[in-house]
């Protein structure tokens, strides 16, 4: 963990590990109707071309942009690991606080990039290359978008003075929830099915965002979209939205 290369290797490895089950499901869904029935867009098929495109862009962004930034950060703020782990309540509370703060930051960033056409065209359009989500589309984005979200995720544990183990747990959970958001499957055991009062959106929530462009801007929770009047639960009937160029 003291290596300057650890953050990139760790985050990219964890990302691929979380994506792998869904990629296998995408490949099998062509022949297995039981898998296809859980897809948020059953008529969509993930192609080998899209898998290669998403993987290559994600790898390029990590090597060319994320790696230099994390190495510079390591020199600016070397890793100092405490002798003791945090208490369980401290770890859970810190992770939840980081997650809620990230959810708000991303909601504001995301909303602005959809409401201001120049921001959308310049920075966010790459991520909307696919109107149907799949796990590997999670990091199919331009360098500026990836760096912005990495900044939010990286600075929040620092602002909240979290223990390094809490910070690591937040990173892992944040990557998992991002992949789950884009996985393209509404699985019966998914988090949004047992979170009360519809507080958590999950894959169907974010898939509707990619389908309509005009709703569900928060990545995980639904309260900010409720307050902003941008929450959408069901796809619009016989209506196709194109985002302004």
Task: Give me some keywords for this one.
245 residues; mainly alpha
Number of H- or I-type helical stretches: 10
Ends apart, CA distance between termini? 43 Å
Unreliable residue runs: 238-242
Radius of gyration: 18 Å
Structural class: mainly alpha
Please state the overall shape, judged from the principal axes of the Cα atoms.
globular
The major sheet is characterized as: none
Instruction: Tell me the β content.
Output: under 5%
Helicity, in percent? 55-70%
The oligomeric state of the chains shown is single chain
Q: What string gives the helices and strands in order?
A: HHHHHHHHHH
- Report the count of strand segments: 0
Notes on the structure:
- With 245 residues, the protein is mainly α.
- It is 61% helix and 0% strand.
- It has ten helices and no strands.
- α1 runs antiparallel to α3, α6 runs antiparallel to α7 and α7 crosses α9 (202-212).
């Amino acid at each position: 963990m003291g290596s300057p290369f650890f953050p990139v290797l760790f985050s990219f490895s964890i990302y691929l590990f979380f994506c792998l089950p869904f990629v296998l499901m995408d490949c099998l869904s062509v022949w297995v109707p039981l898998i296809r029935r859980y897809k948020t867009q059953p008529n969509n098929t993930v192609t080998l071309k899209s898998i290669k495109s998403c993987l290559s862009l994600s790898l390029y962004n990590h090597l060319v942009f994320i790696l230099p930034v994390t190495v510079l950060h390591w020199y600016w703020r070397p890793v100092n690991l405490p002798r003791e782990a945090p208490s369980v309540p401290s770890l859970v509370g810190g992770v939840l606080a980081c997650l809620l703060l990230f959810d708000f930051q991303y909601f504001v960033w995301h909303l602005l990039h959809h409401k201001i056409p120049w921001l959308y065209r310049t920075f966010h359009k790459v991520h909307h290359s696919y109107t149907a989500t799949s796990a590997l589309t999670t990091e199919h984005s331009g360098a500026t978008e990836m760096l912005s979200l990495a900044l939010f995720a990286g600075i929040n544990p620092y602002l909240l003075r979290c223990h390094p183990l809490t910070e690591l747990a937040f990173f892992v959970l944040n990557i998992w929830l991002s992949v789950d958001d884009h996985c393209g499957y509404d699985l019966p055991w998914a988090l949004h099915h047992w979170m009360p009062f519809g507080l958590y959106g999950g894959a169907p929530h974010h898939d509707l965002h990619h389908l309509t462009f005009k709703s569900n801007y928060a990545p995980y929770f639904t309260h900010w979209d409720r307050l902003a009047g941008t929450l959408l639960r069901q796809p619009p009937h016989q209506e196709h939205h194109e985002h302004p160029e």
